[in-house]
Predict the 3D structure of the following.
Amino acid sequence: MTDRSDESRPAHTPLATRLRLSAMMFLQYMPLGLWGVTVGTYIAANTGEAGAGIFAPGFIGYSTTAGAIGSLLAPVLLGYLSDRYVAAERLLALTHFVCFLAARGMAYSESQTAFYLWLLVYFHCFLPACALTNKIALKHLVDSEAEYPHVRIFSTLGWITAGLLVGFAWPTLFGSSIEATATPILLGAYASLAMAIYSLTLPSTPPEPKAGKPGVPRLSGSLPLLSNVPLMVFLAINVLACIPTMPYNNYGNLFLNRHDYPNPAALMTLGQLSDLFCLWASPWLIARFGLRRLFSFGIIAWLLRYVLLAVGGYYQLSWAVYSAILIHGVCYVFIYVVGVMYVDRLTDAAYRGAAQGLLAIATMGVGNLLGALVVGYSESTFLTPPGVTPAPYHWTPFWMVPAAISLVTLAAYYLVFVPMNRQSPTAEEG
């Protein structure tokens, strides 16, 4: 386990630093929050003969491969650069400036190919930026396990702010919804530009002197990570855990729109309220249950969420759908945030940037790529099968596919990872 003891360090991070890091998290996640929830609705409104007719049937699901592909190499490459060559905050500014350009390109695309290429560019920059913000925060927080969850609360606040702006404030002020338009993508573009500028004001996070002399980059520049068996197994479990996240992330808004729920984008922000609670309570929860058990709670929450959506859609039970939205905090925090802290615990200081890049590859890369393929196939099978008019939109079997994957993930976690880490000193629960 990483030794964080240093008597020269204060017991807590100065308030000014925590506020700066909190603002960083707010601005990191707000841009994608402005358009990521509604982009499926925008694509659906312009698919086939509808709208501008830009997209082909099934593109909602298969477009999500862009995010996965963007996570396969870019996060670990930029993690390597931040460990050895370039200050993390400068790389962060560069990635968000390119996100600004890419989002504008998406908004003005007139073909599916152009849209997808700009989407690839966007995620090749946004996802490494997520890993960089994690590295910056963990570097400058004195007690990361107590303070990092509270800093990450502001990423949720950024997402909530974005959802309320698109789903509630805009239609209230201007009298019409923009969820099926490209306007949210443009709003996200300018939010990325704001983050690029702000990144240059962040605390200096230069390359780690312990990372060794510059050399020819290898995979993450850190073969010791590849020999860290507990880390590698945990990353493999993360791949499985993130496959089921894709259906909700990409079809939740469309599901709510098709079932005539009011203000769907704003409604989905109710899930972020539980994010806030889980992040606020995380230090106590970690001390009470440990990172290992909390991660399992996250897997169980995804299983429960899809069962609730399947039941709610089949029987038209609003309470089940609202419950599926409200447990988002457990789903998100206990997989993604706890995962970040667990990887940090399993990794030496000289390789933290690269390790966070590997986590991004596992979760948003391989996991999301497999999830995109699964969800694209499920869409074409259950929601909009080719040659069937009107599209049947069989939501219940659609939601049960990721539920089954979550069940398999839970079994693998307890059969493989937990027994291994009970014998591993690097996974001590402390």
Notes: The domain at 15-208+218-427 is CATH 1.20.1250.20 (Growth Hormone; Chain: A;). The chain is about 75% helix and 0% strand. Residues 80 and 221 are 6 Å apart (CA to CA).
